[in-house]
Amino acid sequence: MTPTLRTDTPQVESGADTIELLGLVAQLELLSFTRLAADSAQAPTLEQRLELSRFAAASVERRDRVLSRIAELGGDPVSAVAEFEHVLDDFDARTQPGSWWERLLTNYVGYGVAEDFCRIAAAGLDEQSRDLVLEVLGDSERGDLTVAALGAAGSGDAVLVSRLALWGRRLVGESLGVVQALLVSRPGLVRLVDRGAAQEGAPAKLFGELTAQHTRRMGRLGLTA
Amino acid sequence: MTPTLRTDTPQVESGADTIELLGLVAQLELLSFTRLAADSAQAPTLEQRLELSRFAAASVERRDRVLSRIAELGGDPVSAVAEFEHVLDDFDARTQPGSWWERLLTNYVGYGVAEDFCRIAAAGLDEQSRDLVLEVLGDSERGDLTVAALGAAGSGDAVLVSRLALWGRRLVGESLGVVQALLVSRPGLVRLVDRGAAQEGAPAKLFGELTAQHTRRMGRLGLTA
């Protein structure tokens, strides 16, 4: 029996690209932990404090699974994460939330776009890494809390709803800027998007896809994108 | 076969006392989570950020085990925790750390005394609750990190060591003040200390015991208490 040619076999250089994307995912989870923990400290009710601390803890567990995969692939987990230490610095500096609700929306929308990008790029990974990324980023509990909290707050408060819709438009612009900056500075990520695009659609469609997913996410909140 | 008289059977009123102590333990773990997460965000190295986020996540897991026990005993976990929402407010206001090292020491010493108090009071609990409290508070990993980090920083830096020793003396005074305030305002906790003292020593010895444990803890850091 001769070995069959597998079209999804990683190319020689894709090991480093894989570790690059996994480093980005792990960094996003680390930032997510830090934000969720800060949200927990500031949450208006004790129930929300407890719940947000659980989400923060879950981020740690997810991140450590990604770090283990980096080590399995022969990468150095800490260096891989450190590569993206400042990935959201500009985004954070430009999107200081003015209220608890804006803060919730910032995390949901900001991380939502970055995570969608990682999911799209993950199409270019080996099967095991891809499955891990999709599983890690597929956890929607946090989104459900945001949807429930914002839905409850917004019902009957037209002013809040229209302010948050405006805030969401600003956030998506800044988030797409983060993705743009990544594509310019990280050719490895571009290669993964290109490789994944064979099954997933042309790389030119990336921003269209990210915008469409943002619109769906805002729709879940009852907000106009 | 007649039922034997068990001297460790909880008294009628001790159910509420048990829930009170478990609420305090859970609140300390929640505060611990919040501080460890903030420490993680401010840690000087990425390795420390990752490690402190793991400790924060472990606090959530420990706290939720205590909350489950409160529910098992028929208590309301959220109310039990809420009872102690402000337990460390005064302590925190009076012990704002001026450096990363003071911050580490504040958490180690401040929580150390509060946790020692909980361990002593736990002697008055039913066996299952007592075992849970001792197990939850027995996790020394966090202390090990502090010991390693402060030990490395202090070796050869006599000025830092003497500043930290001074800071430690201030912290233990404030921590004992927290315990004092609890004993004055929470007769349920006093009853538990009294019940536990039958095997453990007189309640009058409480502050002596807490001080002795503080001295041991500072000794592990190479600091004079």
TrEMBL record, chains A, B:
Pfam families: MiaE_2 (PF13794). Residues 18-193 form the Ferritin-like domain. This is Ferritin-like domain-containing protein. It comes from Cellulomonas chengniuliangii.
